[in-house]
Amino acid sequence: MKKKMVATLALAALFSGASSAAVLRVAADPVPHSEILNYVKKIDPNLDLQVIELNGNLNANELLARGDVDANYFQHVPYLRDQEKALGEKFDVAATVHIEPLGLYSRKVKSLKDIPDGAQVAVPNNVTNLSRALYLLQANGLITLKAGKNDAINNLATPADIDSNPHHLKIVEIESPQLPRALDDVQFAVINGNYALQAGLTPSKDALALEKAQGNPYANVLVTTPKLANDPRIKELAKDLASPQVAKFIQQQYRGSVIPVNQ
């Protein structure tokens, strides 16, 4: 824990020291967020954008709250709201950009029809994505949640809410970035789109089941602080991320694995 904290503080200091008043510092996951931001740098060279790629030792919302970055781009709103409660902070959503459908993957089973009795299913261990994974399993007929668990945003689900489990699935909670590695050890894993892409998976082709894009409440957003919400640099980046050029880039680059909100 001490080593992790030292690494985080050292990196945060580096980010802060490297910045200037004109530079817009944005923390982002490597795929697809940093790739999308680097494309923005090409189409809008007047925006002095510094992309800071996240790793497992960094909490981008803590960096934002401390002022080590000016914005972040890696999360959906339900996760953000949970982070606000945990950190005792308030943040602003500057732009809604894309959806990464959560997917169910396996290296041992080719079809959900072949699901073995007692199969282990690895799922994200954070509150919002754990619930999201359970709703995905329910949508594909693998489990049934208790009555009233029909709203993924307002009724977060936990394994205790499973009412019917005909295949006797065993839910294994794992940190989201580790889920692709778990595929060798479990029969199934529910993986966030960005981590699937980083692991060389193509969600639109490799997933046995994917969340629906229509009406999906888990769109990834550009987040900043209330103090910077009206900063011209933030507004310019938000406009770029909502542009037809960026939507076209996302469509061509990820071919259904990442879906632009502004199509």
TrEMBL record:
Family: Belongs to the NlpA lipoprotein family.
The entry's keywords: Lipoprotein, Membrane, Palmitate, Signal
Cell location: Membrane
Domain of life where this protein originates: Bacteria
Protein name: Metal ABC transporter substrate-binding protein
Segment forming the signal sequence: 1-21
Keyword Transmembrane helix: no
Membrane topology: Lipid-anchor
GO cellular component, one term: membrane
InterPro entries per record: Lipoprotein_NlpA
Native source organism of the sequence: Pantoea latae
PANTHER family per the UniProt record, alphabetical: D-METHIONINE-BINDING LIPOPROTEIN METQ (PTHR30429), METHIONINE-BINDING LIPOPROTEIN METQ (PTHR30429:SF0)
